[in-house]
Amino acid sequence: xxxxxxxxxxxxxxxxxxxxxxxxxxxxxxxxxxxxxxxxxxxxxxxxxxxxxxxxxxxxxxxxxxxxxxxxxxxxxxxxxxxxxxxxxxxxxxxxxxxxxxxxxxxxxxxxxxxxxxxxxxxxxxxxxxxxxxxxxxxxxxxxxxxxxxxxxxxxxxxxxxxxxxxxxxxxxxxxxxxxxxxxxxxxxxxxxxxxxxxxxxxxxxxxxxxxxxxxxxxxxxxxxxxxxxxxxxxxxxxxxxxxxxxxxxxxxxxxxxxxxxxxxxxxxxxxxxxxxxxxxxxxxxxxxxxxxxxxxxxxxxxxxxxxxxxxxxx
Length: 315
What we know:
Blueprint: H1 5-11, H2 14-26, H3 29-36, H4 40-54, E1 59-62, E2 65-68, H5 70-96, E3 102-109, H6 116-126, E4 130-137, H7 139-147, E5 153-156, E6 165-180, H8 193-197, E7 202-204, H9 209-220, E8 229-231, H10 234-242, E9 248-251, H11 256-261, E10 264-265, E11 274-283, H12 290-301, H13 303-311
Parallel strand pairs: 3-4, 3-5, 7-8
Antiparallel strand pairs: 1-2, 5-11, 6-9, 6-10, 6-11
Helix pairs in contact: 2-3, 2-4, 2-5, 3-4
C-alpha cells in the first residue's frame, strides 16, 4: 500500500535524492560511489531505502547493464526540478547579500578547450564563490545537451539554426590551413585552395564543428573535399600532420606551440583563415540564473581583453 504524502516525507531524504541523481547521471553504482566519496554498498543502501519509500524500483539490472525504470525516469524529472529550485534559492539568497554564489554548469565542445581556461581564470577571480562544473563534449553531444537543457550554458562554434536558442558570440574562432614544415607544398610559388585540399587532407569525423565549418566553406566556394583520413580529435589530426600524413585545417589556437617551435606552418591560401565565433548558447525559454547572468555579463565586458589574451601572443 503506497505511503501517504506525510509518510513519504518522513522516509525520503535529500541524501537519497542526491545519490539517485548521481547514479542516474553516471549510469553506474560504482562510478556514483567514486564521485560521492562513498562505498558502493552505501550507494546501494541509499537507493534501496529510496525504493522502499517510493514502493517501486527506480533501477534494474538486465545482465550486467543498469537500466532506469519508468518510475526512475519520473523521479529524475522531479529531482531535477527540486534541485534546480534549491540552486535558484541559494543564488537568490546570495544576491540579496550582494554576492554571486552557486554552481555554473558548462558544456564545451572539444575544440573550445583552448579558450575556456582563459575565460574561467578571469571569471573565477571575479566570482570566487561560484563552483564550475565543465563537461567537454563533441558538437553532436553539445547540440543534444543544449536541446535537452542539460547545462546552464554550452560553449560552441557552429550554433544550430533555431529560434528556440539564444546565442551570444564572444570570441573569434580562427581556423587556418596547416602543413608540416618539411612538406614540399610549402615550396610551391603559388598554391590554390583546391590543391591544398587535395594534398592528403586529414579531417574530423562527421558532426564535428571544425569539419562542418570547412564543408560549408567548400560548398559556398564550389571546392571538393576528398579527405585521406578521418580522425576523432584535433589533437590526433595535429599529430598526423606532424607525422607527415598530410595537411589539415585546424583552429589556430590548437597549433600555437608547434608554430613557435617551427614544426608546422600556415601556407598562404586565398579565402583563409576561416573565421567563426565561439558562442555561449542556452534555450531561449530559460530565464538565466544570477550565476548564468554574471557569466554572460563577464563575457560581454571582457570580449576585447579576452581576444588579446587568447590571440595576442600567437606567432
